[in-house]
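Milestone M4 deliverable, item 7.
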Amino acid sequence: MDFIPIRAYDNYISANLELALLQDAGINCYIKDEYTVTIDPLLSPALGGMKLMVEDSYLAAALYLLQKSDKLFLQTVPCPHCGQFTLEQVEEEIHYNRWIDKIKSLIVNGQEKKVQKYYRCSACQHTFGELPDSIV
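Output delivered:
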């Protein structure tokens, strides 16, 4: 039985909420490096954070459940710019061509590429990095 990392977290609360969601659906999964990162958060970039590991036979179902959960949550959050409930999360991968940039990214992000996440409102096209504090 092989396990595949599908998400990484800096926060054990978010990690355990999504772990519980998957386990309630009968998906075999666990959180790797949870205790290490919780005890010493400075190790998180070196380890790549806490990783949600899913058995490979459950991969498609796990990804579907997590995406559905994220989408349902964002439907409850109004856009801070226009007030519409049309937010979507956007992920962009930044790949580095120079080897020195790859090494820097490995040290800072724990991987050769950088994944940039932000939110965008479908109604007004306004983008922002974090959800409003009153929501989270």
